[in-house]
């Protein structure tokens, strides 16, 4: 049977082929209804968008997924296939030459580009690419005597037959070619729009095609979105109604896909210009929810973060305001006590941090003359393209008297700043980079005037950049030119006379700051989010200008208070600095810190929770004695029990060496009833300790099994144990609490804690007080890496049993490197074994 009777591709003899069965996709159906006329006038009242956040509205319709067979295919971009081209017969001889018995098949490696079907070997049938626009029809051959597994492509003057190895590959080629051909057509149509009502119909058909395609590939949904984003970018003068109709039309594609960057810009513009539109609530809400749940890195697509930020600000513009934002945050967390989506919190925090940073961007750029985010987006990278440096805008008291002539004056004038006077030649030791006016002391200094508002053009602080390194080294007490960083608090506290510095924000920036600071407060109210939130905020990821802003630090104080009230160690431990030499929230909100606006209540709360955990250590007390002894004594004088306990521990652990300071602490304790009572208890403990450490008593001691912490304390208080060198508490019920008794044994060298409940907190205490310990048995105890790492300070250890503990290989290697005398180690039944 010749090819003419079997089905040519478009000639008069191919009617039989068209009447036979072939693959046909389900007819396209509209997915989304038109927005009602009244949607643009909805507000965030009880019946408006704010009350229907997350609920299905007129913009929602069910999705239609096709493929009658239910098969799914991956989009082909290239592949090997057999090719045969059949020209339309015009003479009797050509009919004979095109018969199925004389057809010639060629193997080709075909590539499906965006515009044509090309071969890697452009010879024979595929010498020239076959454009998608030239393909008139695309069918599957399925009649009885047709070649097996063939796809037919009809073009003017002939037919291309593609033969695959099996039916699955044939269908995959068919759907991939069909997709490429249609997407090429839509790209051409939408690149040259004429009537927008026609364009809207084409967009809906394009969306339907993507949703009903049996192909499963990321580009199936992304390609239509890129086409539409290009259309919107090139036609920015559309009406608001056209904007909303297009957004509604593409909404089904966004339910399972992130919008491309250009589309995010369009969405951001709509949120800014039409925050009360129903589209923001009913279309953007599921898109933002998906971004927060599934986005892994905003750094790869910062416009997703910007879109999320603008969406939240649009919610804040509704009548219900922050109540709508609160409902949105609650919907992201979920109704249960545990949020099922681990990426929601980090993404929300990233959005909040970026939004808060943007509020102070002008001040940050004024500080270092670096290009702003807007300038970077606009391609302004050159130094001469940027604005001249602006001074830092602050609110601070005016100095009571004129400064000396040799110093650069700090003044606040309501008008333009006067030209600064020329400084004197620098001496051999460079002067500090921030000059502070110093007034001569007088018996009755005049009251300082109230803080004056400073405009953006006023100069308050003159920084000499050439002297920064010398100033930092002078503050640290080190040589000039050192590479140590200046302390954050020292950078902010430009004068001891200035307790707080404030920055005046524009009205819009102030609203943005209030919105996202309140979101951080909401996040801190969820118990399951608080540990991760504390960890994310521990490095203080805010600009210095934000920490100098009184309104922001007051809002953030609630978050820090929530951390200080949380009994979990992984939460309140984040109040301390992330590493030594850096400031933490504990320093910023302590008396004298830039964020402290009370009399030390938050500071006392933080100290209380830290001392109640495993931070009752010499290191913590030593840092308080060096930096915060004055505030501790003041709060103790006012009857704060936590500070009274701190002062007693400083005396008990001999933290204070200066005798006069010790006497001052004792006087402070004796000035209140609670202090006097605790000091008398301290004296009693010291007398007992002297009796306990008096030479004498046994050298070896073993407690009976099932003994408790109270039994050990009772035993050690019964006599002298100054000679005790070997103590066995194996198979007893002692816990980390007994460490308070163990550190009182000055001669202890061997300690057996086998099969007890002694944990990490006890190990930390032992590591600071029992430096002479040589043998330690921790077999079958609940200690972890957190406590075992503290043993690295016990340089006398020569035998350590960590059998059946939660020791890891990294901690084991660290201990071996830091304990030079360690000879006998047992790590059986651990990860390090």
UniProtKB/TrEMBL annotation:
<feature type="domain" description="PH">
    <location>
        <begin position="75"/>
        <end position="184"/>
    </location>
</feature>
<dbReference type="InterPro" id="IPR056429">
    <property type="entry name" value="PH_CMIP"/>
</dbReference>
<feature type="region of interest" description="Disordered">
    <location>
        <begin position="32"/>
        <end position="56"/>
    </location>
</feature>
<keyword id="KW-0433">Leucine-rich repeat</keyword>
<protein>
    <recommendedName>
        <fullName>C-Maf-inducing protein</fullName>
    </recommendedName>
</protein>
<keyword id="KW-0963">Cytoplasm</keyword>
<dbReference type="Pfam" id="PF23066">
    <property type="entry name" value="PH_21"/>
</dbReference>
<keyword id="KW-0677">Repeat</keyword>
<feature type="compositionally biased region" description="Pro residues">
    <location>
        <begin position="414"/>
        <end position="430"/>
    </location>
</feature>
<keyword id="KW-0539">Nucleus</keyword>
<feature type="region of interest" description="Disordered">
    <location>
        <begin position="370"/>
        <end position="454"/>
    </location>
</feature>
<dbReference type="InterPro" id="IPR032675">
    <property type="entry name" value="LRR_dom_sf"/>
</dbReference>
<dbReference type="GO" id="GO:0005829">
    <property type="term" value="C:cytosol"/>
</dbReference>
<feature type="compositionally biased region" description="Pro residues">
    <location>
        <begin position="440"/>
        <end position="452"/>
    </location>
</feature>
<feature type="compositionally biased region" description="Pro residues">
    <location>
        <begin position="397"/>
        <end position="406"/>
    </location>
</feature>
<dbReference type="GO" id="GO:0005654">
    <property type="term" value="C:nucleoplasm"/>
</dbReference>
<dbReference type="InterPro" id="IPR052813">
    <property type="entry name" value="CMIP"/>
</dbReference>
<feature type="compositionally biased region" description="Gly residues">
    <location>
        <begin position="44"/>
        <end position="56"/>
    </location>
</feature>
<dbReference type="InterPro" id="IPR001849">
    <property type="entry name" value="PH_domain"/>
</dbReference>
